[in-house]
């Protein structure tokens, strides 16, 4: 588990007020939405807004990748690292 | 097809020889009608008579006006076997280099009127431009179409027999009102109008036969005649599915390809398709009428338009009836008659006018009734307090936007999810360029929109969103909320957005109360919270609170509800999970 993934889990818990969860409760490869953590589309929006602010990543709602990027903490970390890699 | 040129003249003779020479150079025989010119001009005109060179001068001893002169010329043309006539003015204002283009168009569209459409540069005085636009808008109303792009330019090709027929059967003004009136009346009879762009030439030392007072009266009377004529013909127009003549009338004219530079607008274009620029000028014109002629003249101009919408807007009329029936049931009043529906439409027209007035600064703070001793809109809110404002299509919410941006310098972002609304809004914005209103067209609210609006909220700006319309075709989910006794779908989007933006949420409405405007607003919540797992319940609660706040106001002013679609129809929630 990378530090970014841990950071992201804490960030998700904080942003979405998931008080009953701890970092250890979230599996990096577990689905964030619907099945796994049971988050919904409003959470996705909320998370998207917060991520954009904190990590300065550009989320294009029209691209199909969004679903993939937001599928799990692991994917999200990869997406953020990729965005940072770009000049 | 046999074509000649007809040149009417009243005292114009200095440029006439050159005009005749230019027309002859195109190979057209010329018929000059001297319309009772004074002695000096008469003699000069008479010298041009040269039958061996195909130029004839016909003298009318009494000045009868342009219409009489042109029609005399057409009668002579018909006797001599001509089927079409190019009408050219004698003062040299017409761009005669374009005669071949007019002739080409006439050959392709033998039943149509081919008209020059002057292209003006920026040097034209504004008053003149406005005057031309006034006539354009009148003619659009009179023909219920935008096909006639210019009705004042006399440089035209007419089908001779059809023109004489219209002249004989209908009372057409013979003076300065001739050019416009014959065109509108021939259009009613099924003639296409094809425009060819032409240059405008202002010859030196030109004398104008235009008499400021008399001719303006003549032209105003003509428009009254034509609006009346339009209304009389309206049932036929509706019967033929938005055409003045049954479809077979003019099909022959539409065969053949179009020449270059010919703007031939389709017959099917109506007010609903009016483009932004045309609408902008139309509204500028309306604003101008409002300023000079007042509200009632404005309503007079709009009457035919509203009648038209009422007669042709089937869905809207039915929706209005359904709404009025529910309203009558809830209010315990008599069931609605058809004239109540018309009044409903009429109020909608008035509201559009109020919007124009509100944005052009015509409505003063004295005209506005504030609740409970408030002095201005949201006067108690701190300057940098961002809020989400939920509004609806009741009354005239533009009033609040206009007042808020004018009085308090609030920066306001308005979300619109319909193309037409966005278009209308842009036009309004042009009327008040200094207003700090930002119109945002959204089809559905994704991360992009949410992030952008979040930034605006952080800067203390307002977000205004209509809570009573489900975006058409968008994946907008709905909640069912009671309105006038029956459940109606409201969009979830505005409430989700309010939740994401995390600022206080207000409800607001403004409506007309006789000659004044009333405004009302109330805080819905300091922070809209939609807890996970119970989101739909929470949205339903907030949406019900909103409608419960709005409903008594709508019931007090039932005619000001401007949702002309079936408000209670459940949308097909195929994306519901």
Automatic annotation (TrEMBL), chain A:
<keyword id="KW-0597">Phosphoprotein</keyword>
<dbReference type="Pfam" id="PF00550">
    <property type="entry name" value="PP-binding"/>
</dbReference>
<feature type="domain" description="Carrier">
    <location>
        <begin position="2"/>
        <end position="84"/>
    </location>
</feature>
<dbReference type="InterPro" id="IPR036736">
    <property type="entry name" value="ACP-like_sf"/>
</dbReference>
<dbReference type="InterPro" id="IPR006162">
    <property type="entry name" value="Ppantetheine_attach_site"/>
</dbReference>
<dbReference type="InterPro" id="IPR009081">
    <property type="entry name" value="PP-bd_ACP"/>
</dbReference>
<protein>
    <submittedName>
        <fullName>Acyl carrier protein</fullName>
    </submittedName>
</protein>
<keyword id="KW-0596">Phosphopantetheine</keyword>
Automatic annotation (TrEMBL), chain B:
<keyword id="KW-1003">Cell membrane</keyword>
<keyword id="KW-0472">Membrane</keyword>
<keyword id="KW-0808">Transferase</keyword>
<feature type="domain" description="Glycosyltransferase 2-like">
    <location>
        <begin position="5"/>
        <end position="133"/>
    </location>
</feature>
<dbReference type="GO" id="GO:0009247">
    <property type="term" value="P:glycolipid biosynthetic process"/>
</dbReference>
<dbReference type="GO" id="GO:0016746">
    <property type="term" value="F:acyltransferase activity"/>
</dbReference>
<dbReference type="InterPro" id="IPR029044">
    <property type="entry name" value="Nucleotide-diphossugar_trans"/>
</dbReference>
<keyword id="KW-0012">Acyltransferase</keyword>
<dbReference type="InterPro" id="IPR004960">
    <property type="entry name" value="LipA_acyltrans"/>
</dbReference>
<dbReference type="InterPro" id="IPR001173">
    <property type="entry name" value="Glyco_trans_2-like"/>
</dbReference>
<keyword id="KW-0997">Cell inner membrane</keyword>
<feature type="transmembrane region" description="Helical">
    <location>
        <begin position="293"/>
        <end position="311"/>
    </location>
</feature>
<protein>
    <recommendedName>
        <fullName>Glycosyltransferase 2-like domain-containing protein</fullName>
    </recommendedName>
</protein>
<dbReference type="Pfam" id="PF03279">
    <property type="entry name" value="Lip_A_acyltrans"/>
</dbReference>
<dbReference type="Pfam" id="PF00535">
    <property type="entry name" value="Glycos_transf_2"/>
</dbReference>
<keyword id="KW-1133">Transmembrane helix</keyword>
<dbReference type="GO" id="GO:0005886">
    <property type="term" value="C:plasma membrane"/>
</dbReference>
<keyword id="KW-0812">Transmembrane</keyword>
């Amino acid at each position: 588990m990378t530090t970014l993934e841990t950071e992201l889990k804490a960030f998700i818990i904080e942003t979405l007020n998931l008080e009953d969860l701890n970092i250890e409760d979230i599996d990096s490869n577990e689905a964030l939405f619907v099945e796994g953590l049971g988050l919904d589309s409003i959470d996705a929006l909320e998370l998207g807004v917060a991520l954009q602010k904190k990590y300065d990543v550009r989320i294009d709602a029209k691209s199909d990748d969004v679903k993939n990027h937001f599928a799990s903490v692991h994917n999200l970390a990869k997406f953020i690292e990729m965005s940072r890699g770009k000049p | 097809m046999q074509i000649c040129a007809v040149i009417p003249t009243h005292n114009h003779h200095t440029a006439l020889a050159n005009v005749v020479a230019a027309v002859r150079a195109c190979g057209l025989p010329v018929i000059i009608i001297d319309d009772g010119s004074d002695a000096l001009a008469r003699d000069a005109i008479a010298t041009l008579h040269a039958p061996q060179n195909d130029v004839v001068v016909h003298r009318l001893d009494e000045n009868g006006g342009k219409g009489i002169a042109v029609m005399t010329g057409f009668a002579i043309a018909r006797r001599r076997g001509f089927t079409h006539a190019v009408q050219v003015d004698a003062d040299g204002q017409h761009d005669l280099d374009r005669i071949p283009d007019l002739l080409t168009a006439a050959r392709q569209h033998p039943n149509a009127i081919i008209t020059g459409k002057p292209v003006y540069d920026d040097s034209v005085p504004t008053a003149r431009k406005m005057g031309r636009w006034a006539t354009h808008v009148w003619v659009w109303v009179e023909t219920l179409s935008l096909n006639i792009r210019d009705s004042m330019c006399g440089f035209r090709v007419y089908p001779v027999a059809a023109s004489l027929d219209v002249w004989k059967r209908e009372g057409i003004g013979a003076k300065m009102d001739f050019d416009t009136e014959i065109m509108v009346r021939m259009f009613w009879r099924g003639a296409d109008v094809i425009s060819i762009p032409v240059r405008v030439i202002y010859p030196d030392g030109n004398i104008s036969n235009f008499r400021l007072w008399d001719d303006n009266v003549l032209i105003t009377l003509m428009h009254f005649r034509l609006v009346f004529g339009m209304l009389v013909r309206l049932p036929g127009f509706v019967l033929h599915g938005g055409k003045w003549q049954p479809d077979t009338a003019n099909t022959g004219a539409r065969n053949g390809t179009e020449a270059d530079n010919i703007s031939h607008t389709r017959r099917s274009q109506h007010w609903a398709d009016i483009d932004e620029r045309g609408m902008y000028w139309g509204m500028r014109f309306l604003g101008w009428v409002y300023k000079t002629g007042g509200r009632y003249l404005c309503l007079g101009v709009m009457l035919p338009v509203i009648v038209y919408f009422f007669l042709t807007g089937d869905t809207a009329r039915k929706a209005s009836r359904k709404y009025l029936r529910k309203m009558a049931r809830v209010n315990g009043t008599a069931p609605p008659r058809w004239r109540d529906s018309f009044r409903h439409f009429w109020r909608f027209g008035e509201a559009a006018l109020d919007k124009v007035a509100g944005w052009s600064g015509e409505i003063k703070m004295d005209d506005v009734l504030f609740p409970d001793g408030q002095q201005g809109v949201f006067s108690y809110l701190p300057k940098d307090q961002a809020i989400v404002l939920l509004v609806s299509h009741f009354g005239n919410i533009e009033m609040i936007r206009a007042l808020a941006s004018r009085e308090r310098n609030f920066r306001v972002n308005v979300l619109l999810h319909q193309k037409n609304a966005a278009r209308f809004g842009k036009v309004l914005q042009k009327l008040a360029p200094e207003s700090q209103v930002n119109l945002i067209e959204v089809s559905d609210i994704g991360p992009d929109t949410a992030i952008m609006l979040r930034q605006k909220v952080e800067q203390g700006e307002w977000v205004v969103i209509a809570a009573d319309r489900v975006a058409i075709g968008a994946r907008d989910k709905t909640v069912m909320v009671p309105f006038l006794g029956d459940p109606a779908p409201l969009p979830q989007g505005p409430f989700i957005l309010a939740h994401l933006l995390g600022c206080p949420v207000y409800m607001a409405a403004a409506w007309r109360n006789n000659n004044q405007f009333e405004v009302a607003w109330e805080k819905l919540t300091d922070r809209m919270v939609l807890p996970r797992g119970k989101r739909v319940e929470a949205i339903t609660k907030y949406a019900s609170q909103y409608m419960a706040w709005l409903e008594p106001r709508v019931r007090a002013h039932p005619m000001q509800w401007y949702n002309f679609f079936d408000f209670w129809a459940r949308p097909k929630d195929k994306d519901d999970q």
